[in-house]
Every structure is written in C-alpha cells, then in structure tokens.
Structure prediction request, 264 residues.
Amino acid sequence: MMLKTNSIKAILLIALSTIGLSACANKPTAEAKQMIIVTAKDWNTSTGTLQRFERMSIDAPWQKVGKETAVQLGKNGMAWGTGLHEAPLTKEGLVITAEGMKRSPVGVFSIPVAFGRDEASNWSVKMPYVKITKTIFCSGDPESKNYNHLVDASKEPKEDWSKGEDMQDYVNQGVYTYGAMISHNYSPTKPGHGSCFFIHVWRGPDKPTAGCTGMAETDTKEIVSWLDPEKNPVLVQLPETIYSEVKNKWDLPDLQIPTAQKEL
Prediction:
C-alpha cells in the first residue's frame, strides 16, 4: 500500500500490517472477523441494505450485529470491482474499467483507513485515521502517482493530479463528516479503473451516489466506529441475484434473500 505523505503513509503502513489478509483468492474473507455486507436488488439498483456480522474466530460462525441499514449506491447501480476476490466470478454484471461509471463496486474489499471531520479521539474510531483538513485530497487523475489514494497536498513538492476530490469541501457539505475508504482498485491500482470509493454520509435517502456507499450520518458514525483493524474488517457488496452463487466461495453468512430474487 503506497501512501503519499509522511503522516498518511505511516497510517496506511500500519493498516497493511494489521489487515494482513493472506486468504487464498477463492476465500477472500478467510482472515476476517468483521464483515459489512451490502446487497441490492439487482445490478442496476441504486438502493441497498447494509448488514454487519462478527465472529469470535476465523473458524466460528458469523453472528449478526446491530440493525439493517438503508444505503444509497451508485446512480447507475453496481459493477464488478477489483479487491480481495477473483473477479468477475459470474457471467452477470459489468466490470468497472473506467472513471465516471457511477456504479458501486461488487466484490470483497478491505477497509484500510477511516477519515472524518473530527479528531479520532472525539468519536472513538479504532481504524487508522486521517483527519480531513483543507490540504487533504483524493486523486482521481489516472496519470497521477497518487491515483486513488488520499494525499496531503501540503507535503507534496508539486500537485501531480489534474482532478480529484477536495475532501474538506465534502466535509463542509456534510458528506465526509465520517467515512472510510473502500479498497477497490487500491493496491495495486490500475490507471482509469475507478478511484475514491468511500463509505460516507449520504445526501439523502433518495439521492444516489457517484459510486460510493452512502447512509445516514448516525449510521455512518456507528459503523465506522465499530470497525476494528485487529479483526480484519471487510466490505462485501453484491446484488442479491448472485448471493447464492458466491456464498460458499466467499464464506458468507446466511441471509434471507427473497425467493424471487434467487430465481432471476
């Protein structure tokens, strides 16, 4: 994992050492003891449901944690992402191969770092953490060495990105008050294959995202605070139509998926 400033680099090097996901490709959740599962009705739906699970050991069964949470996904639905899984595992679905598809990534993803408006101590976040300031950006420029990574512009000799997300601006809008990075196309990165996917606060329950996973502010804060790097948390996102197909390959818990969706 390559971080682009001294402070952020140190944070993510710690994250790599604690995540340590050494699972073989067909069991990408093998080391995880915390799991967030986001399901949507189908590939083109922009709304979904988030559920959390935890287990005492990697051999123990998954136990549900907390309530189901409504989420907003990409405006155009979902597409296969690049993460801990082999992809694509099914014949269904597009693959994220370009910026601007406005689809949320499908697959199994580590969660390397949390971020937000406040000091970490103010809301008991346990993950490696970046406090957002006016110099923190996420590069969306495929030509940038910082592509798809958080970067502190004040520590860079020269900004090498022509486009990116001004994280402070989104904090001011209330979107990045609390959040965490989704490691789609993260390490290694493929230029142009999508950048800056986050768990973050939504703009509203009826407002899709550009590809991130959005939810109410109270839910975002609770979920990001719950994440524990010592438990190797993963995010699993997928349409309900393929859940049964990947369940055993990804060692997923039982979910109540409507019969009609299973048959599609």
In short: Helices lie at 6-19, 167-172, 217-226, 243-246, 259-262. Confidence is low (pLDDT under 50) at residues 1-5, 13-25, 258-264.
